[in-house]
Design goal:
Elements lengths: L1 H23 L3 H22 L7
Helix pairs in contact: 1-2
Length: 56
């Protein structure tokens, strides 16, 4: 339970922080960096929290 709750809370905090940053500094270049950052964070979170089905 905690292994899924903690990553969600940290991603939510990052989304809030980056959202405030993008809102207060209205620059299209910054919006692009924020979008890329969020995509990478969500991709990493998905990769680390999904169930591993392959064997090593």
């Amino acid at each position: 339970m905690i292994d899924r709750l903690l990553p969600l809370a940290s991603v939510a905090a990052l989304i809030v922080f980056l959202g405030i940053l993008a809102w207060k500094v209205p620059s299209p270049d910054l919006w692009l960096i924020v979008a890329i950052t969020l995509l990478l964070v969500l991709w990493d979170m998905y990769g680390h929290t999904r169930k591993k089905t392959r064997r090593r």
